[in-house]
Amino acid sequence: MEDANHALSTFSRHGFRLDGLEWPSVAHYVEGMKFEDGALRERIRDTDHPKAAQRLARRQRRRVRWDWDDVREVYMTRGVYTKCRAHPEAADALLDTAERNIIETSQYDYYWGCGRDTRGLNTYGKVLMNVRARLLEEASASTE
């Protein structure tokens, strides 16, 4: 989701601290974590907009860490969860989705979204639902 004004978007300007650094958005964090090179990660983190972070990462696609396909969902989950913990309004927006399935309707992304023909993996939607479940679990545990 690229709508910078929507609290659940990876582009939203809900910064957070993770892995010892301040990240301006989830998109910055995920794009940065594609690389083991600290200097490149820093360049991505310092871009002025999440779209710029994506473009920079795409230009460096030959340098993406070898295990990225195996760990990308973990980094997305960490980023979304940390953002929600740092910004109650983001957590509230996620909790307001109740028990509904969340579908990332990206027409062109068959991994994070459902793709044009809705046969995609919808991984971002699943990440949001998993983070929502964890937030609900934590809220329930704190009231016991």
Topology as a string of helices (H) and strands (E): EEHHHHHH
Query: Separation of termini?
Result: 35 Å
Q: Could you say which structural class the secondary elements and strand pairing correspond to?
A: mainly alpha
- Uncertain runs with pLDDT below 50, 5 residues or more? none
How big is the Rg? Answer: 15 Å
The chain-level mean pLDDT equals: 94
Fold and architecture overview:
The protein is mostly helical. Helix content is 51%, strand content 4%. The chain is built from six helices and two strands; from the N terminus they run ββαααααα. Strands 1-2 form a two-stranded antiparallel sheet.
Summarize the structure.
With 144 residues, this protein is mainly α. The chain is built from six helices and two strands, in the order ββαααααα. The chain has a two-stranded antiparallel ribbon.
Provide the fold topology.
Elements: E1 16-18, E2 21-23, H1 26-33, H2 38-45, H3 50-59, H4 68-86, H5 88-95, H6 123-142
Antiparallel strand pairs: 1-2
Annotation keywords:
144 residues; mainly alpha
